[in-house]
Specification:
Chain B: It holds the Pfam family HORMA. Chain B: It is found in: Nucleus. The complex is a heterodimer of chains A (about 700) and B (about 210). Chain A is mainly α. Helix content of chain A is about 85%, strand content about 5%. Chain A has a four-stranded antiparallel sheet. In chain A, helix 3 packs antiparallel against helix 4 and helix 4 crosses helix 5. By secondary structure, chain B is α+β, with helices and mostly antiparallel strands. Chain B has a single domain, classed as 2-Layer Sandwich (Cell Cycle, Spindle Assembly Checkpoint Protein, Chain A). Chain B is about 30% helix and about 30% strand. Chain B has a five-stranded antiparallel sheet with strand order 5-3-4-8-7, covered by helices on one side. In chain B, strands 1-2 form a two-stranded antiparallel sheet. In chain B, a hairpin with a 2-residue loop joins strand 1 and strand 2. In chain B, helix 1 packs antiparallel against helix 2 and helix 1 packs parallel to helix 3. Chain B is globular, with a radius of gyration of 17 Å. The C terminus of chain B is likely disordered. The chains are: A mainly alpha (about 700), B alpha+beta (about 210). The interface between A and B is medium-sized, with 26 and 42 residues.
Chain lengths: ~700, ~210
């Protein structure tokens, strides 16, 4: 049944597909209408077939569902059987469980009874335990007490042992110290002896030195006297020699004297002659000068005379040379005046002519400028006109082309219209109609714009061509063009400003020294002064650094050397590891040694004094029975050996005159009788003190 | 030699410009105190008295540079000459004297005739430039620290670098004030001068 349905479905589907896949032929409008009726019938058939297919499908599904239902019922029955089996099994199990449960309950009860008995036993046991614990605690406490007692006893034993040890050590130390002191005392005595001997020797040496010095001084005085005598003798010798020589010269001098006297007389005579001759010579010389001057004057005068004669001749000839009627100088002056007047007139003419020439030149230059302007204008106008002519021609051609297109389109549309009348309208035809109409409208508008432009152009060329109407359209065009021009001008200005800014930046960079690495290269001489100077500087810096490091090490070594000396007791100097260390002088070494030795001496002396003082105080304490302490300035506190308490003490103050006065203390208050007896009546402090010791001793021994 | 001829040839122009640089650099070194004034001596040139250094090492360096510069001027391959003054302690550039050189390459052709410009006018122009350089001392900041100088030459990229020369940076001053000075031209070479100095509120500390 299903297969038959399937085959019918398949066959119908195949026929439908073949119908759809047939190629569509482009049909004329007449065939289109017939074809549509066929299509409709086919469509109806296809719809019927589809409905049949659907019905078949539904029937198929119904059968399938029936089958499924039967299968489900079968499975249901099987399941029920199984469940019943399971139920019976579970009931049997349940009965088994119940029996077991009862058994377990009986057991539980037995166990509970046993538990109860066990609890009772437990509580009894616990009570016994507590009692035992209490007994234990008491015993423990007793044990602890015994332990603490033992510990205290042990501690006392250890402390006593320590004390023993310390005392023994002290004894040993004191023995050592005593021996050391005796040794030192011996050493010091030996040194003292040495020093005394040296001192005596030095004294003797001093005395000998002084004697020698005195003898020396005497000798020196004698030597000085002898030297003085020697000098005097030498001077006398020199004087004697000069006198001898002078004596020899005397005879020569006498001869010369005679000769000179004769000459003197001769010269006196000749002097008078000489004076006379001098006067004559002077007179002659003056005459000569005068003569020479007159000669020169004569020469000059003759030259002048010649010149004047020539001048005169020239002047006389002037009249002949110029051809004028000149005999006297007055004629000449007249002629000159005339000439001058003529000259003035000519100059005036010259000035006027110059001014005229200049004005004419100016006019000429202005006219030339105007001419050039007019020429440029005409050239521009001509160019514009030519451009406009070319535009007009182009537009005319376009117009022709457009009109032809329009005619063509019109004819097409007419043909379409004629065809349209025979057949029905289809949607595609409508669309085409509309498109054609749009194209027509566009062309019409374009055409109108072209006409308008042409009119505008003709308007612009008014002086050359005939003017047109339609001014409103041209004004719109003008406005749009003006706006364009303004925009362009604004852009141009902006670009000019940008250009200026960039040029300024470029100029600035150029001034700062910027360069284009593609085109230029910067070179400099390798051994240039700045690099040389830098190298020198670096070298200087390095040398300075080295110096600094060496100096620092020196300083450190010196500081360490000084510190070491203070700590050590050596005589040697710490040698550093540098070659530049200065050897310290001997004086410094000696001074350092002296300083160390003196410090040691001081320390030893201090120790010795302290020990002596301590010894003395203990001896006093032992012998007198009082320990004397100095509390403050001039106040002495005495504590007795047999004092009952630590604070029992007597205070004595030293007065301004040197007398000792007893100050009141608590202890002294108890000794009021003794104070009265010994201090006030007997006025003896040693008696008072001894009485106090006897009293305290008596008290001690009785107690 | 060029004073007897009527016109200026390329060679003569290169010599004039090199001579100007030699005297100009010496006067700048004297004015700014890079070298002590007692090492300078007075000579007369361009109808004025100029200061020229007597230190032999400096003069040797200057003659080397100027002779090389003359060659380059003859080949028209040099664009700028810069005198850079640096502080020795901090290696900062304190001053920059820049001379822009524009060469008329048409004079390189062998067919070109010497240009008509009298030596006297060129010398007058050079004199005014050097006088202006001397006058700049009034507004340039004092160089308080030890300074040294260097000469940089901006040449065309395709030039062969000679033996003793090497490439260097432009050594531009940061935060500089620039002043443009006079220029002179020999009708073949035009030399314009300017000075850039570091602003005084950020000067090199001593």
């Amino acid at each position: 049944m299903d297969l038959e349905d399937d085959t019918t479905i398949l066959s119908t589907l195949k026929s439908f597909n073949t119908f759809i896949s047939r190629p569509e032929r482009p049909q004329l409008p007449s065939e289109r209408s017939a074809g549509s009726g066929v299509l409709q019938s086919q469509y109806k058939r296809s719809m019927e077939i589809l409905e049949a297919a659907e019905r078949v499908h539904s029937q198929n599904r119904f059968l399938q569902l029936d089958q499924e239902k039967k299968q489900m019922e079968l499975s249901h029955k099987r399941a029920r059987f199984e469940l019943e089996k399971a139920a019976s099994n579970s009931a049997r199990d349940f009965e088994h469980e119940l029996d077991r449960n009862q058994d377990l309950l009986a057991r539980v009860k037995k166990l509970e009874g046993r538990e109860f008995e066990a609890d009772k036993n437990l509580s009894d046991q616990v009570e016994e335990n507590q009692v035992l614990r209490r007994n234990l605690e008491a015993v423990n406490k007793k044990l602890e007490e015994r332990d603490t007692k033992l510990n205290t006893a042990n501690k006392t034993i250890t402390s006593l042992k320590d004390e023993l040890r310390e005392l023994r050590q002290k004894i040993q130390n004191q023995d050592l110290v005593f021996s050391a002191q005796t040794l030192e005392k011996q050493e010091l005595q030996e040194q003292l002896d040495l020093q005394r001997r040296k001192y005596q020797e030095i004294l003797q040496l001093c005395q000998t030195l002084q004697a020698a010095q005195s003898s020396c001084s005497e000798h020196i005085i004698k030597i000085k006297e002898l030297e003085r005598r020697l000098i005097l003798q030498e001077q006398d010798m020199a004087i004697v020699k000069t006198i001898k020589s002078e004596a020899a010269k005397v005879t020569d001098l006498e001869k010369e004297l005679k000769r000179l006297r004769e000459e003197n007389s001769f010269l006196r005579e000749s002097r008078e002659n000489y004076n006379l001759l001098k006067e004559e010579a002077e007179g002659l010389g003056k005459k000569l000068e005068r003569m020479e001057k007159t000669k020169e004057e004569l020469v000059n005068v003759e030259l002048e005379k010649q010149r004047l004669v020539e001048k005169l001749q020239a002047w006389e000839n002037l009249g002949q040379s110029t051809g004028l009627n000149i005999r006297k100088p007055e004629d000449l002056s007249r002629e000159v005046i005339q000439i001058q007047q003529r000259e003035i007139a000519l100059k005036e003419q010259n000035y006027t002519l110059n001014s005229r020439v200049r004005s004419v030149e100016r006019l000429q230059s202005e006219l030339r400028a105007e001419l050039t302007q007019q020429c440029t204008k005409t050239m521009e106008e001509q160019k514009k006109r030519e451009a406009q002519d070319a535009l007009v021609r182009r537009l005319q051609k376009r117009v022709l082309l457009l009109t032809k297109e329009r005619d063509g389109m019109r004819s097409i549309l007419e043909s379409y219209d004629s065809e349209l009348a025979s057949t029905e309208y289809s949607p595609q035809l409508n669309k085409r109609l509309r498109e054609a109409e749009e194209v027509l409208q566009r062309t019409q508008s374009h055409n109108s714009e072209m006409e308008v432009e042409m009119e505008l152009d003709s308007l612009k060329k008014q002086p050359a061509s005939s003017p047109e109407s339609s001014s409103s359209v041209s004004k719109e065009e003008e406005n749009t063009l003006r706006k364009k021009i303004e925009d362009l001008e604004a852009e141009r200005q902006r670009l000019e400003e940008q250009n200026n800014i960039l040029e300024m930046r470029l100029e600035r960079n150029n001034m700062q020294g910027d360069y284009d690495p593609v085109k230029t290269r910067v070179l400099h001489f390798r051994m240039n002064p700045s690099s040389v100077a830098k190298q020198q500087r670096q070298q200087e810096v390095e040398t300075l650094r080295e110096e600094v490091t060496t100096l620092r090490e020196l300083v450190r070594s010196l500081q360490e050397g000084g510190g070491m000396l203070h700590a050590q007791d050596s005589s040697g100097i710490y040698t550093p590891n540098i070659s530049l260390s200065l050897p310290p002088s001997k004086e410094v070494q000696d001074l350092r040694k002296q300083m160390e030795s003196s410090e040691l001496r001081n320390q030893r002396l201090k120790e010795v004094f302290q020990k002596k003082i301590q010894e003395f105080r203990t001896v006093c304490y032992v012998l007198t029975g009082y320990q004397i302490d100095i509390t403050t300035e001039n106040q002495y506190r005495l504590t007795s050996v047999y004092a009952e308490h630590m604070d029992d003490s007597l205070l004595f103050k030293k007065g301004s005159k040197g007398s000792m006065q007893l100050m009141e203390t608590e202890f002294s208050k108890t000794l009021g009788e003794m104070v009265d007896l010994h201090l006030h009546h007997q006025k003896s402090i040693p008696a008072f003190l001894s009485a106090v010791t006897l009293d305290l001793f008596g008290r001690q021994t009785t107690i | 030699m060029t004073s007897t001829l009527k016109g200026i040839t390329l060679k003569g122009s290169a010599e004039l410009v090199a001579e100007f640089f030699s005297f100009g650099i010496n006067s700048i070194l004297y004015q700014r105190g890079i070298y002590p004034p007692e090492t300078f001596t007075r000579v007369t040139h361009y109808d004025m008295s100029l200061q020229v250094s007597t230190e032999p090492r400096l003069n040797n360096y200057l003659t080397n540079v100027v002779s090389q510069l003359k060659e380059w001027l003859f080949e028209c391959s040099v664009q700028k000459l810069v005198l850079v003054i640096t502080c020795l302690e901090t290696n900062e550039v304190l001053e920059r004297w820049q001379f822009d050189i524009e060469c008329d390459k048409s004079a390189k052709e062998s067919s070109s005739a010497p240009r008509e410009k009298s030596i006297k006018t060129i010398q007058d122009e050079i004199r005014s430039v050097i006088r202006q350089i001397t006058g700049t001392v009034t507004f340039l900041p004092l160089l308080e620290t030890q300074c040294s100088f260097d000469l940089l030459v901006y040449t065309d990229k395709d030039l062969v670098v000679p033996d003793k020369w090497e490439e260097s940076g432009p050594q531009i001053i940061d935060q500089s004030e620039e002043v443009r000075l006079r220029s002179f031209t020999t009708s073949i070479h035009k030399v314009s001068s300017m000075v850039a100095y570091k602003r005084t509120d950020s000067a090199c500390s001593t």
